[in-house]
Amino acid sequence: MDTRCLIVLLSFLAALDGKKFRCDYRYFHNANGWLKLHRVPANWAEARLRCHLEGSNLASPLNVGLKSAMSVLIGEASGDMTCGAFTGIHAMFSRGDLYSIEGVPLSKIPHTWASGEPDNYKDQESCIAMLPDGNLADVDCSDPLPYICYKSSAKTMVMTSCGTTDNEYAFDARTGSCYKFHSVPRTWSRAYMACSAEGGHLAIINNDAEATVIRELFAKHPGGSMIGNFWKDVAFVGFHDWNEHGEWLTIHGETLQEAGYAKFSGGEPNNATTGEYCGAVYRTALLDDLWCENKYAFICEKNPDSLLCDNDL
Predict the structure, then answer these.
(1) Helical (H) or strand (E) element with 165
(2) What is the pLDDT of residues 68-106, one digit of tens each?
(3) What is the pTM of this model?
(4) What does the alpha-carbon distance between residue 95 and residue 139 come to, in Å, rounded to a whole number?
């Protein structure tokens, strides 16, 4: 086969593969997967969580192909990456024992240390960053750095009708939206983050039909099916008092009346024991105010097209 034809074919296959995950990720053939550079710095724990919620892992240079792809993204960011980017290599579970997110020990990851590294400065460096030249340095996990997420290609990945590879999202024709019930409890802020990372948002109830959808979602998740010690008859949704303590708006800035649904349960909102500033819903689909820092189930909503590429529509 002519070399030019081979290049065109590989590019075409890569483009096809690129449709199977997310448009905010970029397919790299030599990495056999998709990568995304997060330029907004975060600490290592936040970076790991964000990648996980997006359906990927905090990237590590596990092989030559992955290292090359990561280097391309870091190089393109140039001035933003002078201190490098977090990798998934860490010693969070046992100081000094460095492993990737996937459980690969550093000893089996091809790497070169930067000059003077590792130095475990002030005995506080248990995470590993990749510098612009491809070398590694140990860094403080609490310091904010950019980071790269990686999703390995898999033949079993299928893009659903909800425009995502996450098959827990289900389309409902009555509202034209897709919904996912998260039975693993999180704080309201973490719930907001999880929905956003998945390409959606905390669910906003716009009418009685959507309230019916919410009741049905709850019915599919009885309390006995949820693991953990938390209140299982409520779930966080997308409204908040925006720190005004008394005025409730959706996360899209509308009053509940403007959004189309403002039916609170009897006696709610009551700001019980002070601090109930976050929006939630009972199994009845009636609204409630809840403590933002307590952990509860939550419901995400997404537009079916929100993760599709333009040429998929």
Answers:
(1) none
(2) 999 999 999 877 788 899 999 999 999 999 999 999 999
(3) 0.86
(4) 13
